[in-house]
Specification:
The complex is a heterodimer.
Chain A (H helix, E strand, L loop, with lengths): L3 H22 L18 E2 L21 H5 L12 E2 L6 H15 L27 H14 L1 H4 L42 H10 L14 H30 L9 H21 L12 H16 L19 E2 L5 E2 L15 H10 L15 E2 L2 E2 H11 L3 H6 L6
Antiparallel strand pairs in A: 1-2, 3-4, 5-6
Helix pairs in contact in A: 3-7, 4-7, 6-7, 7-8, 9-11, 10-11
Chain B lengths: L3 H23 L11 H32 L15 H30 L12 E8 L2 E6 L2 H9 L16 E4 L1 E7 L7 E8 L4 E5 L4 E5 L5 E6 L6 E5 L4 E5 L2 E2 L4 E2 L7 E4 L11 E9 H15 L12
Helix pairs in contact in B: 1-2, 2-3
Classes of the chains: A mainly alpha, B alpha+beta.
């Protein structure tokens, strides 16, 4: 008996270890200190195809995962190969310099920072309104690891482990383009969201996608997550910019070095973010106060919507029910919203629709109508369109305002 | 080897019993009940727990005893036993009787809580909301204050709320708000139209002892009444901003009263973030307070003006 007891325990040991190792290893809620942000490997899509995709292949699915996939003739983005850059083309010293530069600027997942300078102190201090201080970023990185990482991925590339099972796919922050913004800056990479816009997405989630609401977290936690997302987005944008410059052999800038190029890029990215914080869309007062005015406004909105030349119907045929697929900036097959089903990704408040019509939806192909829809004769064309679109999903409202969509 | 296994099993048995004994004192027992039918559910739970405890101790005790007594002794030969008809009949019949007993004991409670005939009518006296589960959140749709007022004038209007979204509905993710006192001093009856947009979820409010699966393609009615409240309007923060808070202070991110924070959870594994599919259950004292909250939520969810731009700290 004296001999057999330890042997029994020995035979139990693998079972016990097998049980406890996964349990204990899951307890850590921060990134390991050794972890580094990986250098980008998926192709940089410079220009997505502009053709309409009549036979959608994989709508809503992550576009380009690897160059190998791109080279297959069946791949939907195959024809766009020429406008795509392969990060693997950066080799040797360039690669090392890029890795080192990015790490100096943005730190590691466990210790993220945004350093607006490399070695010298030439750049202005980080704008405080962006809240990119180290404390926020570190708290944000911890929360990001728990709540966001599995979809949005370690470097914010939208390619986390669960990303491949959700449709539409999670946002890739590295392009620096966010869809639902309330800034009046011209569309494109310069139009960054205001912090409030990102906070709202976190609080409300995005209906019709897999982005849930994180409203049960506290305000401080959501603020920290917002800061960290901005950090990831800046890192991704600088990375792609430098890679593009190195691969194409142009645009390394005055300094001609990778460090200098990254610095220039970060300067302008920070400027974009900073400018966007200040330039909220000015919302014009809502004029249709009475039922009569509302009815007139909805009627005018309907006419504007149906305008053959410049109206919404051009992209949202049959009120969006017959929309066709096309490629967005990320190379994903998407289509203009069906406006009759009351699912609004950017939010369902009238003000959200106002922002969408005013400034468009970044990266999606939806353009802004701010210049086109003006106030004439105490009639606000923009609010007219918003009022009309709002009524569309509700049969009772369509009956009330005399809209026939069938 | 000898008697080693019998000792191990005996220790496990004692540890199990010990765990149950100390649980209530350690705060590992059931959360508080604020449900009209909470006591009945808890009684059923305790009844089943005692039945299983009795048989667990009995069978484990027999097992430990047999392992101890008949442990291997060098030289002793095992007897060949082919089985016992009487024993086998017994351990089939006893569970059958117990299961039938449980079925009989619980049927009244089941009937009172889950039967469709017991569901409150969607009229002016019932509070209604639609809860739509999806991976991984709860989206709650409330009737607007104006619509609730219209129902009081014409109760028939309240009937279509479950199936038909209206333009003036108030959408709030992850927060169930109800009020406790109805006019006659009785708890308010709440009717939830439960739906899911993707997979099976389960609507679970522990303090209500309420659990109901949400099945794709179906709208399932769920009702309950709360016997206590946890939410009031308070000025939190430095700007004099009024927020409706339970035991959690959203400004300081701290629990002022942890047992006043009531969870809404998903009780059916539904994917990666299942464990994070949490919401909160806010019970307002009376309809007045609820309506005031609803008006503020309505204002936010139908905003036509940009909110004031927050200043950097």
């Amino acid at each position: 008996m004296a001999l057999s007891l330890p042997r029994t325990l020995l035979s139990l040991a693998p079972i016990l270890i097998g049980l406890f190792v996964p349990l204990l290893s899951g307890c850590e809620d921060r990134y390991s200190e050794d972890l580094r942000y990986p250098l980008r490997t998926d192709p940089i899509i410079d220009e997505p195809p502009t053709v309409e995709s009549l036979v959608p292949d994989r709508p809503g699915v992550l576009p380009v995962l690897s160059m190998t996939q791109m080279r297959e003739p069946e791949f939907p983005l195959h024809s766009a190969l020429a406008k795509t850059l392969d990060p693997e083309a950066i080799k040797g010293a360039d690669r090392q310099a890029l890795t080192k530069t990015l790490e100096t600027m943005f730190g590691t997942p466990a210790r993220p920072h945004v350093r607006g300078f490399i070695e010298s102190d030439e750049l202005p201090d980080l704008p405080p309104e962006l809240r990119l201080d180290n404390r926020s970023l570190r708290m944000g990185s911890r929360l990001y690891r728990v709540h966001c990482l599995h979809c949005h991925g370690l470097p914010g590339d939208g390619r986390g482990p669960t990303a491949f099972w959700v449709n539409p796919h999670p946002r890739d922050y590295r392009k620096g383009i966010f869809k639902f913004v309330s800034t009046s800056v011209a569309q494109g990479t310069g139009q960054k969201p205001r912090r409030d816009d990102l906070m709202r997405v976190l609080k409300e989630g995005i209906e019709g996608t897999s982005m849930p609401s994180f409203g049960v977290l506290s305000d401080a936690e959501l603020e920290a997550m917002t800061s960290y997302v901005i950090h990831l987005s800046m890192r991704g944008e600088v990375e792609a910019f430098v890679m593009r410059a190195v691969i194409t052999g142009t645009g390394l800038g005055d300094s001609g070095s990778i460090e200098g190029c990254a610095k220039d890029s970060l300067t302008s990215v920070i400027n974009y973010w900073q400018n966007s914080q200040k330039q909220a869309i000015e919302v014009r007062p809502f004029l249709a106060k009475t039922d009569e005015e509302m009815k007139a406004s909805v009627g005018r909105g309907h006419a504007l919507f149906m305008d053959e030349k410049n109206g919404c119907v051009k992209c949202h045929p049959n009120y969006g029910r017959d929309s066709t697929f096309r490629f967005d900036t990320w190379g994903t097959e998407v289509r203009p919203a069906n406006l009759t089903n009351a699912i609004y990704r950017g939010g369902r408040r009238p003000i959200d629709l106002y922002y969408r019509v005013h400034g468009g939806i970044n990266g999606s192909g939806m353009v802004g109508f701010a210049d086109q829809y003006k106030v004439v004769d105490n009639k606000d064309a923009l609010w007219d369109v918003v009022n009309f679109v709002q009524m569309l999903p509700y049969p009772a409202m369509r009956a009330k305002y005399g809209i026939n969509i069938d | 080897m000898g008697k080693y296994w019998s000792v191990l099993f005996g220790v496990v048995l004692l540890a199990c019993i010990g765990l149950f004994v100390i649980s209530p004192a350690m705060g590992w027992w059931l959360p508080m009940t604020v449900s009209s039918f909470g006591a009945e559910i808890d009684n059923l739970f305790m009844f089943i727990l005692w039945v299983t405890t009795f048989f667990f101790v009995l069978t484990e005790g027999l097992l430990v005893y047999a392992m101890w007594k008949y442990a291997h002794v060098p030289g002793r030969k095992a007897a060949f036993v082919h089985g016992s008809h009487t024993l086998e009949t017994m351990w089939t019949l006893v569970p059958v009787v117990i299961l039938i007993l449980i079925a009989v004991v619980q049927i009244n409670v089941w009937e009172r809580i889950k039967y469709h005939s017991r569901m409150p009518r969607p009229d002016a006296t019932t509070q209604q909301m639609e809860v739509q589960a999806r991976q991984w959140e709860w989206r709650v749709r409330y009737p607007s204050p104006a619509r609730i007022a219209a129902w009081e004038k014409d109760p028939k209007l309240a009937q279509d709320f479950g199936g038909v979204p209206h333009i003036d509905d108030v959408h709030v993710p992850n927060e169930i708000h109800i009020w406790q006192h109805a006019e006659a001093g009785r708890p308010q009856r709440v009717l939830v139209h439960l739906r899911t947009r993707d997979v099976i979820h389960s609507f679970f409010i522990p303090v209500l002892r309420l659990k109901q699966d949400a099945l794709p393609g179906k709208t399932i009615p769920v009702w309950f009444m709360a016997t206590d409240y946890n939410t009031e309007a308070k000025v939190v923060g430095t700007k004099g901003e009024v927020r409706w808070v339970d035991g959690f202070n959203p400004h300081t991110s701290k629990f002022d009263q942890e047992d006043r924070v009531w969870d809404l959870a998903c009780a059916e594994y539904c994917g990666t973030r299942h464990s994070m599919m949490k919401g909160r259950f806010f019970v307002h004292k009376d309809k007045e307070d609820f309506l005031e909250w609803l008006r503020s939520a309505e204002k936010a969810s139908h905003a036509r003006e940009a909110p004031a731009i927050a200043k950097a700290p």
